[in-house]
Structure formats: C-alpha cells, structure tokens
Amino acid sequence: MSDTDHHAAATPQARAAALRARYGADPALDVAWNATVAGLLAHRTVRAFRPDPLPAGTLETLVAAAQSAASSSNLQTWSVVAVEDPAAKARLSEVARGQRHVAEAPLVLVWLADLSRLEALGRDRAKATDGLDYLEMLMVGVVDAALAAQNATVALESLGLGTVYIGALRNDPEAVAELLGLPPNVLAVFGLCVGHPDPARPAAVKPRLPQDVVLHRGRYEPAQAGRAVAAYDAAMRDFQAGQGMPQAGWSDAALDRVRGPGSLSGRDRLREILERRGFGLK
Amino acid sequence: MSDTDHHAAATPQARAAALRARYGADPALDVAWNATVAGLLAHRTVRAFRPDPLPAGTLETLVAAAQSAASSSNLQTWSVVAVEDPAAKARLSEVARGQRHVAEAPLVLVWLADLSRLEALGRDRAKATDGLDYLEMLMVGVVDAALAAQNATVALESLGLGTVYIGALRNDPEAVAELLGLPPNVLAVFGLCVGHPDPARPAAVKPRLPQDVVLHRGRYEPAQAGRAVAAYDAAMRDFQAGQGMPQAGWSDAALDRVRGPGSLSGRDRLREILERRGFGLK
Questions:
Q1: Which residues is B267 bridged to in the sheet?
Q2: Residues of A in contact with B167 (CB under 8 A)
Q3: Taking CB atoms and an 8 Å limit, are A88 and B218 in contact across chains?
Q4: Which of these, A220, B72, B137, B203, has the minimum number of CB atoms within 10 Å of its CB?
Q5: Which key words tag this protein in UniProt (chains A, B) (predicted)?
C-alpha cells in the first residue's frame, strides 16, 4: 500500500490555524510543532465514508501500531475483531441506534477488554486466575484496549483514513457478544469505524475546553472550570453554526447526557450485563 | 522549543527491523510505512531519565495532543495533574511501591477519570446528574483519560522524550487523591513519567504476542491463542536475555500476576475505594 504520510504540513501558519480550530479561539500556547503533533491536532471525527475498500495491509498496520502501545504489566488484556461483513456491520449499526456510518464504513473494529485469554491459559496449566474476578482487572483490560485503539487511530489517520469511535456498542454488549462469538470475560468496549473520508461531506476539527480546565498544575483546582465554560459554549455554538447544526453549545447538551439512567441509552445496565458475562467486578 | 521530529527514519530496512523488534520474529506482515507508523512501532518503555528539565512548551504540547483525541459524546470526562514538585513525586513513587523513575522523572502526569466537572456544573445549574452514578460513566471517564494519555505519549515520543505508564497509582488511589487534592468522583487512573531518556541506560522495544492472537477476523476465535504462546514465551526469553533480565518468558509471569487478590498489589480494594470516593458504580 502507499507509504505517503498524510499528516498536515508543519508550517508556523499551520500551527496557529490548528490551535485556533482545536480551541475555537487563539490560545496563547507555546506548542512544539512537527508532523506528528500536527497530525494529532488535526484529528476530526469522520462519519461519512467513501464505499471503496481499504488498501491491502491496512489491518496489519493498524494492529502493529495498536500492539506497540503500552500494556499494563505486558498482560496484553485486549483483542480486536475486524468486521467487514455487511450483515454483521448492519447488526452493529442497529445496536448503535442506527448510526449509518457503522453500516457504511468498509471496516468496523470492535475493541475488546479480554480477560478470557489469561483465564484459558490458567485453565490449560491448572493455575488459579482468581485475580481476574476483580474490578481492577476490568480496568486493566479497558485501559489496554483504549491505548491500543488510539495508536491504531493515529496510524490510520497518518495513512489518510478517517475514523469514528462507537461507544454505543455498550448499549447492548450481549448482542455484540452473540454476533461476534465473544466468550465470557470479554467486553466490547467500543467500536471504531474506518474508511476513506468522503471529500463531498468533509469533517471539521471540533473545539475543546480551554487547556486550563483540564490541566492542573501540582494540585487539582476545581474552581477553574466555571469561568471557562461560558466561553467554550460560545465557541461550540460558532462551530455548530459553521456545520449547519443546531447551536446547542456544550454544557446543556453534556448535562442532558448524564441527567439520569434514562439518558444512558441502556448503558445503565452495564454492571448487571458484565456480571452475567462472567466479570467478577469484586 | 525544538520542532524536530524524532521519529525513526521510514526506510524499508527500518520497517523490517521494527517488525522484528516488535514481534521478536520476522512476521510476514504487509504494513504501510511512514514516519508516524515508524514512530508508533518504535515505542519503548523508558524508565531511566536524565535529570534535565523539559523544554518550555512541553506541557502545552502534550495537553493539546491529549485534547485532540476523541472523547465520548464530547463530555471530556478527564483531567490531568502535572506533578513536578520533588516531594510530591517522591510520595507518588512510594504509592508505586518505590518505583524510582517516578521520583526521578522531571514530570509525572496523573491522568484522571473526572466526573466531578459535570457534577459541579449540574450543581451550579440545579440540574440532576444522576447518570454519573453508573459504572458506565466510570468507563467513559477511564476511556477518555486513556485515549488522551496515549495521544500525549505519541506527541512526547515524537519530540524525543520518553515515557512510562504507572498503573501502580491504583495501589492506593486515596493517597493519590489526598496528595493532589482530588474531589469525589475523580479517579487517578494511571501516572505517566516523562523525561529525556538517559542514553547511558537505553530502553529496548519489547516483543508482543503474534498478531493472530489479538486480531480476530469476523468472529472471535479463542483456539488461536494456545499455539502461539509457546513461541512468544521463547521470544520474550530472548528479549530478557538481551536485557540482562531473568529469562522468565511471558505466560508464567502473566499468570502469576492474576493468580488471586493477593497478587494485585492492593488493587483488589479498588471497588470499595471507588465507592468511598463517590462513584456510584450502579
């Protein structure tokens, strides 16, 4: 496949433009600038894909990148299922409340917190694996899977491909497990759609909260957040206007998302589902 | 600060060498190759740092990269505390059972799953945030924090800096919370040490399991793992020999790590600690 690096050019003008897009403002930030940093800052969520198949070698490349991420105690408690079958993608799209890009992307990766590999190894060797029955080990699997997936995303974007994470697979982990044949002690943490971005429906960089809201120096300072949220709401409304979206801002929509169990799209059942799927969660 | 991209050169010879190091074998893999992919595959865990301070702008750069990662429903349920104070780093090193690099690195980042920002916003606006009390929302915070941290790691490595994740902060989340002034509903998911790698004590790329153990095509195939583990154990023994480490292989050490609650370094108490720290985990 092509070895071109599709990352943005690393000029000073590009740096200012990238920061403006990322923060919806001109932050006075002294950031280093090279092709990798430019590529990271240029990330955008792609939901509109061309139907073309992916270049040969895409899967091998993204898995090698994913495996190169750190893994807690090198336990490698993650796996990934590559889904290309149209009927399977359609079923995953249903789980994700009909998100069309899940059916339309040529490749959907399902990232798994996988404690079953160690469990099976213990069984083969007649060794106890009771440590797997603790919430800590679910945490290890989820973090391992997330670090791996993000490395894959960075690699894919450097190859000119686009991605979108699909947390909505957690709306119904049992349906995903049935579709993909997942054994107990394996959770589909999220999906990742992969494809060529459709140039006719381009995606834009979404602004984030100002740095001083998420970055704490030395100690956590909760008082910082209040001040900045109004400015960020305004930046999000500008972004939404530019995208032809309703100008909802950020804070009202975010609060609506967490107002109660009924706003979690079925994910209020996650604990009970995990217990049924073999996770001890002690 | 310097804008040089320190990623490995993207020659065909470098590709073969990178795959050999990553898998401890010569896998027949058709991977795409550019500076970004080369940089990702060259990742190594750095535990030996020069004492020099970091270049100006390092923190701003890594946070901009971190904020550029995807965030579930754009809720941005993560924060990071930058710890540079020697006494605070020494205390974090104690929590991590005396890992010296935690005290020695010029910067230790503590990555937080942060549900308190939305909780505080809801309180200010007199809006219910009962959805935060579910295990799902801890998952959202942990995934958000991990994606952000991995982007930061990629950016730091492109600048020639080295990192090591410190999961051992979960040995005692309450000590970390007290040290950093974390409010309820905030968990220190892991630390990340950052510094200039010490060239006198170079780190090596650690081999990972063969691709077909972690990659499943269409459906999960548990039968794949057994075959490959013996070969991987041999690759790890070769790696360990080259590093002057005990040749323990992989599978025995991994099983020992999960044999029971006593092998979790105190993290068998994570659920109880999270509940005390305000997480509903419903």
A1: none
A2: 72-73, 140, 143
A3: yes
A4: B203
A5: Flavoprotein, FMN, NADP, Oxidoreductase
